[in-house]
Amino acid sequence: MLRFAIPLFLIAFLAEVLPAQNIDGRWTIGPRGGVNLWVNSLSEIKPGPGAELEIGYGLSRSLGLSLLTGWELLKSEQDPVSATIPYGFLKVDGIPASLVAKWYFSPGQSFAPYGYVGAGGMFFKRRTTNNIYVPQDEWQTSMHIPVGLGFHAFASKDVAFTIDVSYRFMDAWTDYVEGNGSDGYATAKAGLNFFVGRSPSDDADMDGLTNGEEGKLGTNRENPDSDNDALKDGEEVKTTLTNPANPDTDGDGLNDGAEVNMHKTDPKKADADGDGLSDGDEVLKHKTNPLKPDTDDDGLTDGSEISIHRTDPLKADTDGDALPDGDEINKHKTNPLAMDTDGGTVSDSREVTRGTDPTNPEDDIPVKVGQVIILEGVTFKKGSAEITEESVPTLERALKGLMEYPDVEVEIAGHTDNTGSRKTNLRLSEQRAESVKNWLANRGIDPRRITTSFYGPDKPLVPNDTKEGRDKNRRIEFIRTK
Fold first, then answer.
1. Strand order from edge to edge, sheet including 410-415
2. If you count Cβ atoms within 10 Å of the first and of the last residue's Cβ in the chain, which end, N or C, has fewer?
3. Looking at residue 203, what is its pLDDT?
4. Are strands 140-154 and 475-480 parallel, antiparallel or unpaired?
5. Between 3.40.50.1370, 3.40.250.10, 3.40.640.10, 2.40.160.20, what CATH number should domain 2-196 receive?
6. Alpha-carbon span 358 to 332, nearest angstrom
7. CATH top-level class for 365-480?
8. Which residues of 336-361 are buried (b: 16+ CB within 10 A; e: fewer)?
């Protein structure tokens, strides 16, 4: 049992360690030698030597066509001799030639078993004891039909060890005895097969593409990465769907391998995150994230920061005013490249926090000493010093400014239009100025920081001959005194 197990184990081992090959598109030449057993009308079968040469071509991965030729010395004995078979020893020198079709059962494997059948002829001469020719020294012919099994075990892509076992049918007249059916011989041979050329089914450079596929694509069959982009050609064709002959399929400045393996971007899309910047510019030039349209999370895409606003796509607050660039552009309409858009000495963020307009320098606090600010929006009930609800937002902005700058002192001046007597208007303007002071003092402002003045109708801004003019002249002013 062991003697059968060892060869089987050896064959299985070879199938695992030897290189797999395909035969399609390749020529082969294979010399072999071995023994034969001639089956004929004589009573005793004797082994004889034989040699064979195969010349073949692979038509496909599974089918090959070969010419088999060679030399066979067929031997047989007859004991006892008879009138029908008058010689005790007979041998045949045969030169067979047959065209055979070979089927490979496991194409593309390192261990490649096959079966075949063919047809051809054989030239031969018979000899008996003392080398006497039967019937004469002339070449005879016979049909020659081989049927067999064998295998190639590839030691390299070009060389295979071959064992072949077959039976070859011949004419019944080969043994010089008629009427006993066809003769034939069984033969077993071993040798080497040498393969020439390159199979289109092979993957010569082990890149996942056959030679035939690479030929159609125009890639290098000897280089697994034809465009040197760190992706094998087969991976590009079958997985990433990129061009194996172009290292940068989408033309974004990053090679396909870097996009797939390092940056995780799409090698078929020049702008993976759709922010208006190519992946190559993001990685190599701007150092932004090619997978994130807004790298610094400031509300502006990287592309708009670079191309439109000229802000830093890596810095959410380019001008350092504590407002994100996106809020400055989209919400406050301020300049993300200037801390104080209106140039009024107060930063944009501070104005936004306290409720003043960061695009209007006139409402910045602190103002210069002596500068007058009209608190537009501060109104009173008719003929009264009672502050209306509509005045609260404006007063709250003034309150925030005074709280933010505790060293500032102000004068609150009251003004009226010319409706009514001057005496009445003077008293009303005084009461209104005091009402504003009290409103601020009641909310935490030290009253010593505030003085009041009143001018009634004496300092109009515009003529009082229209309603609009009179509305404008009724006002409260802040004047910085310190």
1. 372-374, 475-480, 410-415, 450-454
2. N
3. 65
4. unpaired
5. 2.40.160.20
6. 8
7. alpha beta
8. bebbbbbebebbbbbbbebebbbeeb
Q: Which two tokens stand for residue 447?
A: 């009253």
From CA 190, how far away is CA 167, in angstroms rounded? 15
pTM of the model: 0.52
Around Cβ 195, how many Cβ atoms within 10 Å?
A: 23
- pLDDT for 345 equals 66
Place of tokens 């194996």: 244
Determine the Cα–Cα distance for residues 354 and 364; give it in Å rounded to an integer: 10
Please state the length of the chain.
Answer: 482
pLDDT beneath 50: ranges in the chain: 1-17
State how far the Cα of 420 lies from the Cα of 223, in Å rounded to an integer: 102
Measured distance CA(337)–CA(348) in Å, rounded = 11
Residue range(s) of every CATH 2.40.160.20 domain in the chain: 2-196
The angle that helices 392-404 and 422-441 make with each other, rounded to 10 degrees, is 60
CATH 3.30.1330.60 segments of the chain = 365-480
Please give the structure tokens belonging to residue 238.
């079958």
HEC per residue, 7-56: HHHHHHHHHHHCCCCCCECCEEEEEEEEEEEEECCCCEEEEEEEEEEEEE
